[in-house]
What we know:
Layout: H1 2-39, H2 44-67, H3 75-78, H4 83-118, H5 131-135, H6 137-161
Helix pairs in contact: 1-2, 1-6, 2-6, 4-6
Amino acid sequence: MALVTRIEGLVEALGCMARACVLLLVLLVSFDVLMRYLFDLSPIALQELEWYLISPIALLGIAYTLKHRQDVRVDFLYEKFSVKTKAAVDLFSGIATAAIGFYIAHLAFKYTMQSYRMGEGSPDPGGLPYRFLVKAFLPLGFGLFGLQGVADSLRASCVLLQPASAREVRP
Length: 171
Protein backbone atom coordinates (compact mmCIF):
# COMPACT_ATOMS: atom_id res chain seq x y z
CA MET A 1 0.00 0.00 0.00
CA ALA A 2 3.01 2.31 0.36
CA LEU A 3 3.39 2.32 -3.43
CA VAL A 4 -0.29 3.20 -3.84
CA THR A 5 0.13 6.09 -1.39
CA ARG A 6 3.16 7.41 -3.28
CA ILE A 7 1.46 7.17 -6.67
CA GLU A 8 -1.65 8.91 -5.39
CA GLY A 9 0.47 11.58 -3.71
CA LEU A 10 1.99 12.35 -7.11
CA VAL A 11 -1.46 12.37 -8.73
CA GLU A 12 -2.71 14.72 -6.00
CA ALA A 13 0.26 17.10 -6.39
CA LEU A 14 -0.11 17.31 -10.16
CA GLY A 15 -3.87 17.66 -9.73
CA CYS A 16 -3.20 20.71 -7.56
CA MET A 17 -1.08 22.06 -10.41
CA ALA A 18 -4.04 21.56 -12.76
CA ARG A 19 -6.32 23.42 -10.33
CA ALA A 20 -3.83 26.29 -10.19
CA CYS A 21 -3.85 26.39 -13.99
CA VAL A 22 -7.64 26.78 -13.89
CA LEU A 23 -7.30 29.86 -11.69
CA LEU A 24 -4.52 31.22 -13.88
CA LEU A 25 -6.63 30.62 -16.99
CA VAL A 26 -9.60 32.50 -15.52
CA LEU A 27 -7.37 35.44 -14.60
CA LEU A 28 -5.66 35.43 -17.99
CA VAL A 29 -8.93 35.31 -19.94
CA SER A 30 -10.33 38.14 -17.79
CA PHE A 31 -7.22 40.22 -18.42
CA ASP A 32 -7.35 39.47 -22.14
CA VAL A 33 -11.01 40.51 -22.36
CA LEU A 34 -10.31 43.74 -20.48
CA MET A 35 -7.35 44.52 -22.73
CA ARG A 36 -9.40 43.81 -25.83
CA TYR A 37 -12.44 45.91 -24.92
CA LEU A 38 -10.78 48.75 -23.01
CA PHE A 39 -7.60 49.23 -25.04
CA ASP A 40 -8.35 47.38 -28.28
CA LEU A 41 -5.27 45.17 -27.69
CA SER A 42 -5.23 41.41 -27.98
CA PRO A 43 -1.71 39.97 -28.05
CA ILE A 44 -1.40 36.64 -29.84
CA ALA A 45 0.93 35.35 -27.11
CA LEU A 46 -1.78 35.80 -24.45
CA GLN A 47 -4.33 33.95 -26.54
CA GLU A 48 -1.90 31.10 -27.13
CA LEU A 49 -1.03 30.97 -23.44
CA GLU A 50 -4.73 30.42 -22.75
CA TRP A 51 -4.63 27.39 -25.03
CA TYR A 52 -1.40 26.21 -23.40
CA LEU A 53 -3.07 26.27 -19.98
CA ILE A 54 -5.87 24.00 -21.15
CA SER A 55 -3.40 21.12 -21.66
CA PRO A 56 -2.37 20.68 -18.01
CA ILE A 57 -5.94 21.23 -16.86
CA ALA A 58 -7.31 18.47 -19.05
CA LEU A 59 -4.41 16.04 -19.12
CA LEU A 60 -3.37 16.20 -15.47
CA GLY A 61 -7.00 16.41 -14.44
CA ILE A 62 -7.79 12.98 -15.93
CA ALA A 63 -5.81 11.05 -13.32
CA TYR A 64 -6.87 13.44 -10.56
CA THR A 65 -10.52 12.88 -11.44
CA LEU A 66 -10.03 9.12 -11.46
CA LYS A 67 -8.27 9.21 -8.08
CA HIS A 68 -11.19 11.06 -6.51
CA ARG A 69 -13.72 8.73 -8.15
CA GLN A 70 -15.43 11.51 -10.05
CA ASP A 71 -15.24 9.55 -13.30
CA VAL A 72 -18.33 8.19 -15.00
CA ARG A 73 -19.39 4.81 -13.69
CA VAL A 74 -22.57 2.80 -13.69
CA ASP A 75 -23.05 3.19 -9.94
CA PHE A 76 -26.58 1.81 -9.79
CA LEU A 77 -25.12 -1.59 -10.74
CA TYR A 78 -21.79 -1.29 -8.92
CA GLU A 79 -23.35 -0.43 -5.57
CA LYS A 80 -25.29 -3.72 -5.57
CA PHE A 81 -22.15 -5.84 -6.01
CA SER A 82 -20.47 -7.66 -3.15
CA VAL A 83 -17.13 -6.36 -1.89
CA LYS A 84 -15.29 -9.12 -3.76
CA THR A 85 -17.12 -8.41 -7.02
CA LYS A 86 -16.45 -4.68 -6.66
CA ALA A 87 -12.76 -5.42 -6.16
CA ALA A 88 -12.73 -7.68 -9.24
CA VAL A 89 -14.37 -4.94 -11.33
CA ASP A 90 -11.89 -2.40 -9.95
CA LEU A 91 -8.97 -4.72 -10.73
CA PHE A 92 -10.10 -5.22 -14.32
CA SER A 93 -10.77 -1.50 -14.87
CA GLY A 94 -7.45 -0.58 -13.22
CA ILE A 95 -5.51 -2.92 -15.49
CA ALA A 96 -7.35 -1.60 -18.55
CA THR A 97 -6.73 2.00 -17.43
CA ALA A 98 -3.03 1.33 -16.93
CA ALA A 99 -2.64 -0.40 -20.29
CA ILE A 100 -4.48 2.31 -22.23
CA GLY A 101 -2.77 5.16 -20.37
CA PHE A 102 0.75 3.79 -20.85
CA TYR A 103 0.11 2.96 -24.52
CA ILE A 104 -1.14 6.46 -25.31
CA ALA A 105 1.73 7.97 -23.27
CA HIS A 106 4.18 5.95 -25.38
CA LEU A 107 2.64 7.20 -28.62
CA ALA A 108 2.46 10.77 -27.34
CA PHE A 109 6.10 10.72 -26.27
CA LYS A 110 7.17 10.11 -29.86
CA TYR A 111 4.91 12.96 -31.00
CA THR A 112 6.35 15.29 -28.36
CA MET A 113 9.94 14.38 -29.23
CA GLN A 114 9.25 15.05 -32.91
CA SER A 115 8.02 18.52 -31.97
CA TYR A 116 11.12 19.05 -29.79
CA ARG A 117 13.54 17.98 -32.53
CA MET A 118 11.83 20.33 -35.00
CA GLY A 119 12.04 23.22 -32.55
CA GLU A 120 8.33 23.72 -33.18
CA GLY A 121 6.90 27.07 -32.23
CA SER A 122 3.86 29.10 -33.04
CA PRO A 123 3.26 29.75 -36.73
CA ASP A 124 1.72 33.12 -35.82
CA PRO A 125 3.85 36.26 -35.58
CA GLY A 126 4.13 37.19 -31.92
CA GLY A 127 3.13 33.68 -30.86
CA LEU A 128 4.82 31.54 -28.25
CA PRO A 129 7.88 29.41 -28.98
CA TYR A 130 8.57 25.91 -27.64
CA ARG A 131 5.32 24.24 -28.57
CA PHE A 132 6.83 20.93 -27.47
CA LEU A 133 6.41 22.06 -23.85
CA VAL A 134 2.65 22.06 -24.14
CA LYS A 135 2.73 18.79 -26.06
CA ALA A 136 4.76 17.27 -23.22
CA PHE A 137 1.58 17.20 -21.16
CA LEU A 138 0.27 14.43 -23.43
CA PRO A 139 2.71 11.72 -22.32
CA LEU A 140 2.81 13.13 -18.79
CA GLY A 141 -0.97 13.19 -18.41
CA PHE A 142 -1.57 9.75 -19.90
CA GLY A 143 1.40 8.30 -17.99
CA LEU A 144 -0.12 9.67 -14.80
CA PHE A 145 -3.46 8.18 -15.83
CA GLY A 146 -1.73 4.81 -16.26
CA LEU A 147 -0.09 5.14 -12.84
CA GLN A 148 -3.47 5.79 -11.25
CA GLY A 149 -4.68 2.62 -12.96
CA VAL A 150 -1.76 0.75 -11.37
CA ALA A 151 -2.68 2.19 -7.95
CA ASP A 152 -6.31 1.16 -8.40
CA SER A 153 -5.23 -2.34 -9.47
CA LEU A 154 -2.96 -2.74 -6.47
CA ARG A 155 -5.68 -1.56 -4.10
CA ALA A 156 -8.22 -3.97 -5.63
CA SER A 157 -5.69 -6.83 -5.47
CA CYS A 158 -5.16 -6.19 -1.76
CA VAL A 159 -8.91 -6.36 -1.20
CA LEU A 160 -9.21 -9.60 -3.15
CA LEU A 161 -6.35 -11.19 -1.20
CA GLN A 162 -7.61 -10.16 2.25
CA PRO A 163 -9.72 -12.47 4.38
CA ALA A 164 -13.47 -11.91 3.92
CA SER A 165 -13.83 -10.24 7.33
CA ALA A 166 -11.25 -7.53 6.60
CA ARG A 167 -12.35 -6.52 3.07
CA GLU A 168 -13.16 -2.96 2.25
CA VAL A 169 -13.09 -1.15 -1.08
CA ARG A 170 -12.62 2.52 -1.69
CA PRO A 171 -15.91 4.28 -2.54
